[in-house]
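Q&A FORM
Asked by: J.P.
Topic: structure of SH3 domain-containing protein

PROVIDED:
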Amino acid sequence: MPDPRRPSRLAAGIFLSLALAQASPAQPTRTETVPAPALVAGTILKGTLQGDESRIYAVDGAAGQTLSVDLQTSNASLSFTVLPEGSQEALFDASTSGPVADIPLPAPGIYLVQVHLMRSAARRAEGARYALGIGLAGADLADGLAGGPDWWQVSGIREGALNVRSGPDARYGVVGKAQNGELAQNRGCRMTGPARWCSIRVAGSGLQGWVAGRYLIEGAAPAAAEVPEGGPKGNGVPFDAAGTARCAQAPDAALGPCPFGVVREGPGRAGVWIALGDGTERAILFEGGLPVSADAAAPLSFSKEGDLFTITVGAERYQFPEAVMNGG
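REPLIED BY: S.T.
REPLY: Here is the structure written out as tokens.
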């Protein structure tokens, strides 16, 4: 563990931040040092920003420790960066890497977590409320979180189902549910305060998000979808399901069987690849439960009767049930 207090270095960090604020009066900055006990336990810091305002949270860390930061906000233009004190080179930029960071610290020292609105939103004087989670885990614990099986199985839910959330804490919204026994790809775990949270992708449905790690046990990889002979290859991601759709390549042609494969990304989101029989494939993207685009220059249109989609891409027609996209 690092020395919980290094006054001279912390003072230097605060002085640097104040100097930056004074040099740039259009970007008021306030710095707060996060106490070591709060970092060990994990803490939630709440605040509000307007326009060019920013907040800097100073963290005193040791080499090999993992600094965990996650940001919850209703304004998608709010972001954060993490950089060593005295450096302009960010170790993490949430605007490009997402709102959850787990950073192995390369050296002992003060690290600054700066919360700010992106430039376009700041110019519009937008405001944002936020809840920032910050924690600091020892190197041994971080190493343990980095491992784990390739696949988890949901276990131990006594009633209902396991909440899958948009971020690694119960304060994040629920994006879906996972049932006891379901398999999920392990995309990495981290500590949020005293609790372990894991990023997963549920097999079959493609539902993605974060779940409480105490409800996961090691599981075996699910059986791969059996693609019909002559079926599509897709984009290299294993298909969640495969089968046969109905298709025609000319307006006056009768619908016939065409093998397909689908990669699901959660409720209403999927990519469907259909083999055309001449060695080529047609890919159709679903967003919000509806087909929105295809990998063709021709326009896409569709109709739906009951649970059956009929999709037209130029002269081509495709027909398959909604369950192809959502599963079930």
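FOLLOW-UP: The longest strand covers residues 127-137.
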